[in-house]
Specification:
Layout: E1 3-12, H1 16-27, E2 33-36, H2 43-47, E3 57-62, H3 72-77, H4 88-96, H5 102-118, E4 123-128, H6 136-148, E5 153-154, H7 169-180, H8 185-189, E6 193-195, H9 205-211, E7 220-225, H10 238-243, H11 246-254, H12 256-264, E8 267-269, E9 275-278, E10 281-284
Parallel strand pairs: 1-2, 1-7, 1-8, 2-3, 3-4, 4-5, 6-7
Antiparallel strand pairs: 9-10
Helix pairs in contact: 1-11, 5-6
Length: 291
């Protein structure tokens, strides 16, 4: 009567306070995986925070919407933006108008994956910042990259109606439900069921109390989260400040209440390292425990 849960913290590398919160939520709490922003400033120093976190499974949080690209080709295409990535809406516009072509995107994402591999990271999964890989053309690309680099898992974002039906949650859920249907069926069936979309950035106790007891026996789930320490000098973007409650998530994921919920409802914490793909089916290695 066991269900399986990967707790995956996005945005490692965004800021030192975010990194510290993720590492703490792994050491003291229930976080079991994190996605790395490979184009973050001072990449090697940021990675140093992971040295004592061998239990964390690491993936690449592929990025087209924050910071400065790694590749000169992409920087040239973004000259009018001073070489910086656009926000998500402008990214979509640039892709539609072919101001950013797919060859440049592929080169940039390959560079981000290779940046991680070259620093000794075993890349176990791919996802993307702001879920842009769910766009059909980008999903085809991420599938090709996963095959080329032998990365077994890709996040398939699904709608999440367990959160409160806020004004922001309804369109996000609806859009992702449409995009999910364009993803190849084999990836929909062999990826963990994602949780936390509608509550993204503001995961709270009410959500986990509604969600964790409903997990189905023998199924594998991924809870997306964003723990961290908010330090005003590190994060100044007003949009990010409205979207995230990093400290709230860190305290929730490190707290005893969420750990008791997992125990009471026979939820076993695992990482991507514990998963196996048999055909189009996702399975968990027998007697798997996460420590």
């Amino acid at each position: 009567m066991t269900s399986y849960l990967i707790v995956n913290a996005d945005d490692f590398g965004y800021a030192p306070g975010i990194n510290q919160g993720i590492v703490e939520a792994a050491a003291r709490g229930i976080v079991t995986a994190t996605g790395v922003l490979a184009n973050c400033p001072d990449f090697k120093r940021q990675l140093d925070a992971l040295e004592a976190s061998e239990q964390l499974d690491i993936g690449v949080h592929l990025n087209l919407t924050h910071g400065i690209p790694l590749t000169p080709d992409m920087q040239v295409l973004l000259q009018k933006r001073k070489g910086r990535f656009p926000d998500k809406i402008n990214l979509i516009r640039h892709l539609v108008l072919n101001r950013i072509n797919m060859a440049a995107v592929e080169g940039e994402w390959r560079a981000q994956i290779e940046q991680c591999i070259s620093h000794g990271i075993k890349v176990r999964f791919l996802n993307s910042h702001e879920h842009v890989h769910m766009l059909p053309s980008l999903f085809s690309l991420i599938v090709r990259l996963a095959r080329d680099y032998s990365i077994p898992h890709i996040r398939v974002v699904v709608s999440d109606w367990k959160a409160e039906n806020t004004i922001g949650a309804l369109p996000k859920n609806s859009i992702m439900e449409i995009l999910r249907r364009f993803a190849p069926s084999e990836y929909r069936t062999r990826s963990p069921v994602m949780l936390g979309l509608a509550q993204s950035g503001k995961l709270d106790q009410s959500y986990v109390e509604r969600t964790l007891p409903s997990l189905k026996t023998d199924k594998v789930y991924e809870l997306m989260c964003h723990p961290g320490y908010y330090r005003p000098g590190e994060i100044v973007d007003p949009a990010l400040l409205r979207y995230h409650k990093w400290d709230q998530e860190r305290e929730l994921l490190c707290g005893e209440h969420v750990k008791r919920l997992c125990q009471e409802h026979a939820i076993r914490l695992i990482g991507y390292r514990h998963l196996k793909i048999l055909g189009d089916r996702l399975t968990v290695a027998p007697q798997t425990t996460f420590s």
